[in-house]
Amino acid sequence: MSNSEQNSMKVVGPDTIIGEWNDYADEYVLLLRSLDTFTNNKYEYVVVANGVGEYFNDVIGIHGVIDLRDFLDTPAGLRYLDSWARDLGYDDFDDYVLSENGLPPEARDEAHGVIRKEDGSIDKVNSSAYLYSLESLAAMLATHFFACVDNDYPLRMTPEEAAEWVRGLTGQNYEF
Q1: Which of 35, 60, 73, 120 is the most exposed place for a label (fewest CB within 10 A)?
Q2: CA-CA distance, 174 to 25, in Å (whole number)?
Q3: Could you read off the pLDDT of 73-83 as tens digits, one per residue?
């Protein structure tokens, strides 16, 4: 798979700028762009990969929108993130975030930028060590959604159809 074009930012309204498409994968195509660079909550994604098994000759893909508020601002979304992090070997999403920032469990205290609430949970707003990229989180979720499709892919295409589909959605050229 190769890429040969880039999109530029596009102004949609006075408070909305749609971001550029960025590629987040090496072995398949994962294109992602912010649909509102001011709030950075919503991301459009396109995931495309060469098929496997009985779909070996096909290219498979999904396209959608992720609103990160669904995951970061709701109990169900937070449970989903915790479950995803446990699948990767972390205790929960907080453990994932702090580990990715280089903080081992023994250093998760106020001296290292982790503020605790009275109930012992992390004060995510006031903890300087609790940082993560929203765009990276959206890319991770899109990849996870693609992996969860379980061989019942919504779109199975020829390589030529896939290239045209990606070009139509993103303006970028890929070969499959």
Answers
A1: 120
A2: 13
A3: 999 999 999 99
